[in-house]
């Protein structure tokens, strides 16, 4: 699949790049996409939710009423879960939500996500660029020139670029990340990918092993 290379002014440079069919042209696997996104979201969870059970509450252990004949639910002491202020039955406890996925599954998921974007013509390749200073206005102008303003935009750079990152930080629907940090969730969550030309080599080297 050939894609024209644009500059940051939105103009064609006259060059084209070929997207690797082994990465951008496979038959997407929806199940591995689900697993990889599920793992990513699970990793974001703190897992610190905690509720006190009846054994953790302070209070008397005296039985408040008779076992039968009271006309209501049977209960024991003041810490019973059926009483207001009592312990919670089966409440949440701190836990680790992370789980393992094989590397091949994660690679296939990223290939599937990129293939979906390629099928939707949602990949824009731009020649490598830099900003002289961190200015939000300059980054907004780039999105206008590329006709992606107002869309969820993921800018993929070959390496860390502080000026570009800081320029995009205040824009709600824009995100900047390096090609080596690319993950399935970020790709699927974006409406359009703006990929720097040199990033394609990094993506090939990581996903085409």
Automatic annotation (TrEMBL):
Keywords: Ribonucleoprotein, Ribosomal protein, RNA-binding, rRNA-binding. Residues 50-59 have a biased composition (Basic and acidic residues). The keyword DNA-binding does not apply. InterPro entries: Ribosomal_uL4 (IPR002136), Ribosomal_uL4-like (IPR013005), Ribosomal_uL4_dom_sf (IPR023574). SUPFAM superfamilies: Ribosomal protein L4. Residues 46-78 are annotated as: Disordered. Gene3D superfamilies: 3.40.1370.10. GO terms for cellular component: ribonucleoprotein complex; ribosome. Pfam families: Ribosomal_L4. GO terms for molecular function: rRNA binding; structural constituent of ribosome. It comes from the Bacteria. GO terms for biological process: translation. Forms part of the polypeptide exit tunnel. One of the primary rRNA binding proteins, this protein initially binds near the 5'-end of the 23S rRNA. It is important during the early stages of 50S assembly. It makes multiple contacts with different domains of the 23S rRNA in the assembled 50S subunit and ribosome. Belongs to the universal ribosomal protein uL4 family. Part of the 50S ribosomal subunit. This is Large ribosomal subunit protein uL4. It comes from Prevotella dentalis (strain ATCC 49559 / DSM 3688 / JCM 13448 / NCTC 12043 / ES 2772). The gene is rplD.
